[in-house]
Specification:
By secondary structure, the protein is an alpha/beta fold. The protein contains seven helices and seven strands, in the order βαββαβαβαβαααβ. Helix 4 links the parallel strand 5 and strand 6. It is globular and about 55 Å long.
């Protein structure tokens, strides 16, 4: 299978997290020039370039895309991966935590789509299958979980934003595809924190019991690995997915099917 990724230019947000690191590595293995961003700058992983980006700030997005245009003249792939998960009882969650979750998880992706599409439209016109935008959603977009109202709502919004953008870009004739990936529970620092917080919120449910229950929810018998998600992102970035548009790909060992 020809992926058509050699010499493509990609931008990955949230690049210091587990999925971000795996995605940067996977893209680079296919010959992609990767521009990695994180709010704290470079804090881990590998990339060709590192930039600091607060995904909630439109001016920072505009400056970043302008810099990519000046330095590379193109942007073929955008991976909107930055996100947070704040867990709390619904009646106890501060409005500030709810708002911060929506700002990073939803508005951050909206701003990425908005500011990157002019340059990606130009790049996509000269690439088989067009340019590719990939939004990292979650299985939580489809299946709710206790103490995760803000996170679940934000990821459901990402799923619909992806579909709406795909339909709009197609209606406008833009050579830009937009898809979302929906991981199940990923082996990561984030999921460790979620389990620990769930234990605290339920009065001390044993961590081992919570982990076993989470594992049971994935029919193929293990949690998702960051590389599982990264490989799916590579597929969506490639020309192999040239007619995949407005879709939601689940990487969860069958969790969404149960």
């Amino acid at each position: 299978m020809q992926l058509g990724l050699e010499n493509a230019v990609a931008l990955v947000t949230g690049a210091s997290g587990n999925i971000g690191v795996a995605t940067c590595d996977a893209l680079r293995r296919e010959g992609v020039r990767v521009i990695a961003t994180d709010i704290a700058g470079r804090t881990g992983g590998t990339a060709d370039e590192w930039r600091t980006l607060d995904v909630t700030r439109e001016n920072e997005w505009r400056d970043l895309i302008a810099g990519i245009r000046a330095d590379h003249g193109r942007l073929d792939i955008l991976v909107n991966n930055a996100g947070i998960a704040i867990m709390d009882r619904l009646e106890d969650m501060p409005l500030a935590d709810w708002t911060r979750t929506q700002d990073i998880n939803v508005a951050g992706i909206f701003l990425g789509l908005k500011t990157a599409v002019p340059l990606m439209r130009e790049s996509g016109a000269n690439r088989a299958g067009g340019a590719s935008m990939i939004n990292v959603a979650s299985g939580a977009a489809d299946k709710p979980a206790a103490f995760s109202a803000a996170y679940c709502a934000s990821k459901a919004a990402v799923a619909m934003l992806t579909r709406a953008a795909a339909i709009e870009f197609a209606a406008l004739g833009y050579p830009v595809r937009v898809n979302s990936v929906h991981p199940g529970a990923v082996e990561s620092e984030m999921i460790d924190g979620i389990i620990a917080r769930y234990s605290a919120l339920t009065g001390g449910t044993p961590i081992a019991d919570l982990h076993a229950a989470m594992l049971k929810g994935h029919p193929m018998g293990r949690l998702v690995l960051p590389d599982d998600v990264a490989d799916t992102i590579v597929f969506l970035a490639s020309t192999a997915s040239r007619y995949t548009h407005g879709d939601a790909l689940h990487i969860d060992g069958g969790h969404a099917a149960t």
